[in-house]
């Protein structure tokens, strides 16, 4: 493993304070990882809620995605974690349509949101 995402959900789980879920101890936190497969491919993956801070991690094949060479580990982790969350909120839950505007008050947690809004013909104000 090369890198692991560190996020608020991990701290909540470590404190056994994650909404709607009890933390079974002992546990290794970490949800998103970047590393290499046994055949050498550079990938980003969601490991199923725990285990991302370990030296090695296992992920379902459907949760493993190749990382382009032009992305850093941090960028790949942000896209798979916060990026997918922002996409879901804007596209699936919010049903963003071309011409609509979105206010994103906490852009640090939804950093890709403004660029995805503009790619769909919408606008975003991050603050």
Could you give a short description of this structure?
The chain has 127 residues and is α+β, with helices and mostly antiparallel strands. The protein contains three helices and six strands, in the order E-H-E-E-E-H-E-H-E.
Keywords:
127 residues; 6 strands
Descriptive notes:
With 127 residues, this protein is α+β, with helices and mostly antiparallel strands. It contains three helices and six strands, in the order βαβββαβαβ. Helix 3 links the parallel strand 5 and strand 6.
> Structural class of the helices, strands and pairings?
alpha+beta
Sheet with most strands: strand arrangement: 1-2-3-4
Amino- and carboxy-terminal Cα gap = 34 Å
User: How many whole angstroms does the radius of gyration measure?
Assistant: 16 Å
What is the approximate shape? globular
């Amino acid at each position: 493993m090369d890198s692991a995402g560190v996020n608020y959900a991990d701290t909540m789980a470590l404190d056994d304070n994650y909404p709607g879920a009890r933390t079974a101890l002992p546990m290794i936190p970490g949800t998103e990882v970047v590393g290499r497969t046994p055949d050498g491919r550079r990938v980003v993956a969601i490991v199923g809620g725990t285990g991302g801070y370990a030296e090695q991690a296992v992920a379902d094949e459907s949760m493993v995605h190749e990382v382009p060479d032009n992305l850093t580990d941090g960028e790949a982790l942000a896209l798979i974690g916060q990026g997918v969350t922002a996409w879901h909120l804007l596209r699936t839950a919010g049903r963003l349509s071309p011409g609509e505007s979105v206010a994103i008050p906490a852009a640090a947690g939804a950093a890709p949101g403004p660029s995805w809004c503009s790619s769909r013909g919408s606008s975003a104000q991050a603050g």
